[in-house]
Design a protein that fits this description.
The chain is an alpha+beta fold. The chain contains 9 helices and 4 strands. It has a 4-stranded antiparallel sheet, sandwiched between helices. The two termini are 29 Å apart. The mean pLDDT is 96.
């Protein structure tokens, strides 16, 4: 990964609609997305991969009235991933996580798995009853997954653009998302940049002394 190149470029805001991510590259990216870590391995997400013309048009038409400027970005992107987050952690979901860990042999012995499950339940109880922030905590996992996926996309030569400019109510309704117990958190558009619309000016950031404190 060329870090100097990444640090000197603007985030792509517009895509070349004539270019499509090769399937092999897409599958690598989705494999990485599936492997991205979440706290206590809670895996609170479901991902909608939008790539068909019908899917793009449905998403673009349901961003909400004030966010229609983003419709062009969705339509020209090769793919857009709708990252959704669970509304809560049900016992059914938690048991599914534990069952998959056991099936995959995540821990070397039964005792370690049992201790892990007990610790996870205690931590979830803390989030639900003491901090009262279970959904917000899971949303933070979603953003962590998105950030890591953006880095993976850059490694694969794919531009990734996060979008918060949408109405989650209309997106959820358009894709029947809330029926699954999830809600839309953020969109991640993927593709190749429209070079004619790329910003060529320098990236502007605060100086290091304003950003870093060393202790």
């Amino acid at each position: 990964m060329d870090l100097d190149k990444l640090m000197s470029k603007h985030l792509s805001r517009y895509f070349d609609g004539s270019k499509t991510i090769p399937d092999e590259t897409l599958q690598q990216l989705l494999k990485f997305l599936r492997s991205a870590p979440t706290s206590t391995n809670i895996q609170p997400n479901h991902f909608y991969v939008v790539s068909t013309r019908e899917g793009k048009e449905r998403l673009a038409a349901n961003l909400g009235e004030r966010f229609q400027d983003n419709a062009e970005k969705i339509l020209n992107a090769s793919h857009t991933i709708i990252l959704t987050t669970r509304g809560d952690v049900t016992e059914h979901h938690l048991e599914a996580v534990f069952a998959k860990e056991r099936a995959d042999g995540r821990f070397a012995d039964e005792a370690k798995q049992e201790r892990w499950e007990s610790m996870t339940r205690d931590f979830l109880s803390l989030r639900q009853y003491s901090y009262k922030d279970t959904y917000h905590w899971m949303e933070k996992q979603t953003y962590m997954v998105m950030g890591l996926t953006m880095m993976a996309a850059a490694e694969l030569g794919v531009e990734a653009m996060p979008l918060e400019g949408f109405d989650p109510v209309t997106v959820d309704k358009a894709f029947n998302i809330r029926a699954t117990g999830h809600t839309t958190t953020v969109l991640l558009a993927l593709g190749y940049p429209d070079e004619s619309k790329q910003y060529k000016t320098p990236v502007s950031r605060f100086e290091p002394e304003r950003l870093f404190t060393f202790a």
